[in-house]
From TrEMBL, chain B:
It comes from Bradyrhizobium betae. The chain crosses the membrane at residues 21-43, 63-80, 92-110, 130-148, 157-176, 188-210. Keywords: Membrane, Transmembrane, Transmembrane helix. The keyword Isomerase does not apply. The keyword Ribonucleoprotein does not apply. InterPro entries: NrsF. The lineage of its organism: Bacteria, Pseudomonadati, Pseudomonadota, Alphaproteobacteria, Hyphomicrobiales. It comes from the Bacteria. This is DUF1109 domain-containing protein.
């Protein structure tokens, strides 16, 4: 029963991704919205299993989404989408835990006065993308800000910054790629 | 930035299309190849007796061995550039050059030896072989890693090792036309050591640069 429901959901994802690759932006948007809760739950579980607080789950989710976006050309449209997605998610989770492992080691000294179990709450649910966004070149940052935060279309963004739509698309794509690289290397 | 906002920006970028990993890998190798050929032409060159050497099956066998390494390594590295790909079911392809060498060593052993075994094994060019193959591999390795960076390998060190095998296989193909040691024993020893060295370099570099 549960299995059939999971199968149905994953078939739907594959269909949405095929439409997305064929140029259907709305299908792509729906797909990313649909996979996010599943990724979030997996990230929380992964953090819990590693004995880590769940407060960075959203950072992991966003890193996974960026990787999915920039590596979607490695998905074979004849293959089901879910195994590909979960492979990327697993890699990103492992990477993050490895990086955090080092940081946690430092943090133990920093927080040695903190009572056990007392974990500082993070205010922003996903701080890392926001932080790295601030380090992007002005133009990329403006375009990303306009499209992501202000929900402006590419056309409106082009008009606002007196750029061509093509230039907005290039800045958007470069911005997302630069963001991903910064998240990976920092 | 909250996740819904990020998703909105990703959906707006849906029209962006990246080339296939195979195309970028081909390009990387084509950019690296002229440098490797330059090293070959400057320091090595085709052996002078190549016309008569071509009648020796053990000379031809060297190319069969090196290409049966390079081509499967290209195929496997492209397979591994997909995140969900496993090595299982593909690794046997890498046994092709090993099998060919075993057959060649066996058939040489059955013939009346032209030279004592130690001489065939050590040859005249072992030191050249150990430096020339890695040197010619490096530009190709850089090209292969550049190409595979476009993929999403789950095991970056393994993918890097495959890039090492690709570049060593191609460089050894060039080297085979220079080297006058045709004994399969020589190939099995020195080509293998040179290839292992390049593969180790590929794995070490790959574990850093092939993360995505």
């Amino acid at each position: 029963m549960v299995r059939a429901r999971v199968r149905g959901r994953e078939d739907e994802w594959t269909g949405l991704m095929r439409s997305a690759m064929a140029g259907d932006d709305a299908a792509y948007h729906r797909l990313l919205k649909a996979v996010t809760p599943v990724l979030r739950a997996a990230a929380r579980r992964g953090l819990a299993r590693a004995g880590q607080p769940p407060d960075q789950a959203e950072d992991i989710v966003q890193e996974i989404l960026l990787a999915v976006h920039l590596k979607r050309h490695t998905w074979d449209s004849e293959a089901p989408f879910a195994p590909w997605l979960f492979a990327i998610a697993r890699n990103k989770l492992i990477d993050t835990l490895r990086r955090r492992g080092r940081r946690i080691f430092v943090d133990i000294d920093d927080f040695s006065e903190t009572l056990p179990g007392e974990v500082p709450e993070e205010t922003a649910s996903a701080a890392e993308v926001a932080t790295q966004l601030g380090t992007l070149p002005q133009r990329q940052r403006d375009v990303l800000q306009s499209i992501a935060v202000e929900a402006a279309s590419i056309k409106d963004t082009a008009a606002k910054f007196s750029m061509s739509e093509g230039a907005v698309r290039v800045a958007l794509h470069r911005g997302l790629a630069a963001l991903t690289a910064k998240l990976r290397d920092h | 930035m909250d996740t819904d906002q990020l998703i909105r920006s990703l959906a707006a970028d849906n029209a962006s299309r990246a080339p296939r990993v195979g195309a970028v890998l081909t390009m990387g190798l084509l950019v690296g190849a002229p440098l490797s050929i330059l090293i070959f032409a400057t320091f090595l060159g085709v052996r002078p007796d190549v016309m008569s050497a071509m009648r020796n099956p053990f000379f031809d066998m060297k190319f069969a061995v090196t290409l049966s390494l390079a081509i499967p390594a290209i195929i496997i590295s492209l397979h591994l550039s997909r995140p969900e790909a496993l090595m299982r079911g593909w690794g046997w392809l890498l046994l092709l050059p090993v099998g060919l060498l075993a057959v060649a060593i066996g058939s040489e052993a059955m013939m009346a030896p032209a030279m004592p075994m130690t001489m065939r094994l050590v040859g005249k060019n072992s030191r050249w072989c150990l430096s020339a193959i890695p040197a010619m591999s490096l530009p190709l390795l850089a090209g292969a890693l550049y190409g595979l960076r476009h993929g999403a390998p789950s095991r970056p060190a393994l993918a890097g090792a495959l890039a090492g095998l690709v570049s060593a296989g191609l460089a050894a193909t060039l080297y085979a036309s220079h080297c006058t040691d045709d004994s399969p024993l020589f190939v099995a020893t020195w080509y293998t050591i040179a290839t292992a060295l390049v593969t180790a370099i590929g794995a070490a570099v790959g574990s850093r640069v092939l993360r995505y």
